[in-house]
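Researcher: If convenient, please comment on what follows.
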Amino acid sequence: MLPDKQPPVTKEARELAKRLWEYHQLRHSIQKSDAILVLGSHDPRVAERGAALWLEEMAPLLIFSGGLGNFTAGVWEDPEAVIFGRIAREMGVPDEAMLLESRSTNSGENIRFTQELLKSKGLDPRSFIIVQKPYMERRAYATFKKNWSDKSVLVTSPRISFENYPSESISLEIIIQSMVGDLQRIREYPKKGFQIHQDIPEEVWRAFERLVALGFDQHLIS
């Protein structure tokens, strides 16, 4: 969980953040696939997007992956996957169409533990739709392709604009902190073998550096 004290979101900071927001999204055209994999987070709208895709018959299997991570440990009592599964059930997805993986605490574990779960069930989907927050689409894609390169994958997120995404529980300050931290990870994690390489345009990296200078540095790798 990020500290309560946050730097002010000035007009400059908002414009810089919008640049990162645009970069983090991949805007894939979603097609029918073998499975929908919803990566856990502190945003229930991600679960709603995954459930809606299942209800639209975009895939026969809906998987929720997530234990308790940075933003939910000590805040939520149940694992992210359990809460997300509950949301999907309330939206009309039957239990037999869902699998829950509730141990993972980061993106790499989301993929690895889901692989283990599917193997234990004798399932081997060839194509996936990944669902994550809008500002984590690119990182989710890069992590999936590093850990599961032989599978086909498309990425999507709740269809909400940058201006409308902040909510009562997810402030714009927290969104900016997350985007800054994830951009650094997109650059650094391929060197550690965690993700595939993704090009970062110069103007996006300059926006990152300026946001760090403005104080949006609380989600950076230590």
